[in-house]
Amino acid sequence: MTYQLRPEDGLIISAKAILIEQLMAAASHLENPVNGVDDAVHRARRRLKRARALYRLIAAASPDLRRRENIRLRDIARHLATLRDASALIESLHYLQSFADNADEQQALHQALSMLDTQKGESTDSADQTLQNAATACRDAADLLNSTDIPLRRAKAARIVQKAWKKLLAKAHHAILACEEGFEPESFHTLRKATQTYWMYLSLLRDLWPSAFALKRQSAKQLADVLGHENDLAMLSAAIDAQAARFDSAETLSHLLGLIIRRQQALREEALVAAKALFGDDIGLEPVIIAQLWRLRVDEAAVTE
After folding, report:
1. Which end of the chain has less Cβ packing within 10 Å, N or C?
2. What are the residue boundaries of the CHAD domain, all occurrences included (predicted)?
3. Is 45 contained in some domain?
4. Residues 75, 29: contact at Cβ < 8 Å?
C-alpha cells in the first residue's frame, strides 16, 4: 500500500489502513532482518516515524488514542535506537572524513573509528530479544487499531487535517526563531522533527496538489538530510566527550571536537536558510488550501458514485 491518504475513502478508513500496513511492515522487518540488524532497525524505525506522523495528522479525531499510541511507538523506536547507536556514530565519523582540513583531524577520526568499532562489537548480545520484543509491540499496536472504532463525520475530516497542518507549521516557525536566537542543539532537533513530519504530511496528501507538493517534498527531504547530519554530529559530540579518557591525548580529542563543531556550524547555517525558504509562507494559508482541496476531492468522488 502506498503511504498516501485517499479522501474519497474517508479520513479514518484510509488512515487506519495505512497505519496497520506501516506497523505490520515494521514488525516484518524486525522478525526477518535479512540484511542485518542495522538495516532492519533502520527500516522499522522509518515505518514507525511514518505511523507517528499520521497519528499526528488525525489526532483531533481521537486525541486519547493518539496520545497512548504515540507513547507506545516512541518507546519502541527508542529501544530499537540502542541497537544502532554505535553504527550511527561510526557513520557520522565517516561523513566527517571529507571535511577534515589536515592530518591531525584525520588521525583523530581514525582513532575514534577504531574505538567505536570495538564498542560496537561489545554491544550486540541482546539484539535478537530486542528485535522480537519490538516486533510484538508493533503487532499489538496494529491489533488495537483493527479492533478500535473511531467515529468521524466526513464533514469534519477537512477541518482535522487543516488543524494538524497549521499546528505543524507553527511548530516549525517557532523552532526557526529559537534556532536564530541561540543555535541550541535542541532547537535544531525540534526543527528536524517538524521538517520530517512535514515531508510525511506532504507525502500523505501529495495527490491533492501534485506540482506544488512535489517541489515542497524535495525541499523538505533536503532540509531533513542536512538537519539529520547536524543531529548525528550533536550525538557524536556527546558520545566523544563522554569517552574523552580513552583518547591518547587531549590534543587528539581537541582536533576531533573542533572538526565536529566546525561542521555543525556550517550545517546549521545552511539549514536555517533552507528552513526559512521552505516554511516562509503565512502559516494560515496552506492549511486552508489543503482543507479546500480535500473537500473538493471528496465532492468529486461523490459525483462519480
Report:
1. C
2. 8-295
3. yes
4. no
The DSSP line for 96-142 is: HGGG--SHHHHHHHHHHHHHHHHHHHTS-TTHHHHHHHHHHHHHHHH
Share of the chain above pLDDT 70, in %: 97
257-282 pLDDT, tens digit per residue, is 999 999 999 999 999 999 999 999 89
How many residues in total does the chain contain?
A: 305
Residue with cell 540484511: 35
* 3-class DSSP assignment, residue 218: helix
- DSSP secondary structure, 279-294, as one string: T-S-TTHHHHHHHHHH
Specify the CATH number for the domain of residue 43: 1.40.20.10
221-258: per-residue pLDDT in tens? 999 999 999 999 999 999 998 888 888 889 999 999 99
What global pTM score does this model have? 0.94
Contact 33, 130 (CB under 8 A): no
Any long-range contacts for 47-53 (C-beta under 8 Å, 24+ apart)? 47/22, 47/23, 48/22, 48/23, 48/73, 48/76, 48/77, 48/138, 49/77, 49/196, 49/200, 50/3, 50/22, 50/200, 51/19, 51/22, 51/23, 51/26, 51/141, 53/196, 53/197, 53/200, 53/201, 53/204
Residue 6 contacts residue 14 (beta carbons within 8 Å): yes
Question: Does a structural domain hold residue 295?
Answer: yes
Q: Cell 534556532, residue?
A: 179
Give the domain range for residue 182: 7-304
Residues 222 and 274: their CA atoms lie apart, in Å, by 9
Does the residue 279 lie in any domain?
yes
Instruction: Dig out the grid coordinates for 303 from the structure.
Output: 459525483
Number of independent structural domains in the chain: 1
C-alpha span between 270 and 277 (Å, rounded): 11
Cell of 277: 525558504
Three-state secondary structure call for residue 95 = helix
Which of 42-51, 64-73, 124-133 bottoms out in mean pLDDT, i.e. has the lowest? 124-133
pLDDT band at 52 (very low <50, low <70, confident <90, very high): very high
